[in-house]
Amino acid sequence: xxxxxxxxxxxxxxxxxxxxxxxxxxxxxxxxxxxxxxxxxxxxxxxxxxxxxxxxxxxxxxxxxxxxxxxxxxxxxxxxxxxxxxxxxxxxxxxxxxxxxxxxxxxxxxxxxxxxxxxxxxxxx
Length: 125
Fold this sequence. Notes:
- With 125 residues, the chain is of the alpha+beta class.
- It is built from 4 helices and 6 strands; from the N terminus they run H-H-E-E-H-E-E-H-E-E.
- A 4-stranded antiparallel sheet has the order 2-5-4-3, with helices on one face. The protein has a two-stranded antiparallel sheet with strand order 1-6.
- The chain is elongated.
């Protein structure tokens, strides 16, 4: 388990996951993780619509975006998605589309996907 191999020395020895290492397992089920980024922005109650009325506000938001179009909103990390004024923009072209936007516009943000921890890989064994 990667979590044990990256743990500080000594901590891996007391981990409750140590007994799983070195075993052989029969995989009985694998589930595909659902991608919500392609869904219509109306289908997810967690999405937030952001109305940008003036260019200064749009520039402020652009300055808050990190490399993967994420920013903090009310204490949560969210990511801009292809909805609102960015509807139909392919994921690989979102950054350029955001750079070309002019106010007024409407952006949609969704919670940033959490990285799954060891053991949360949708595989049953």
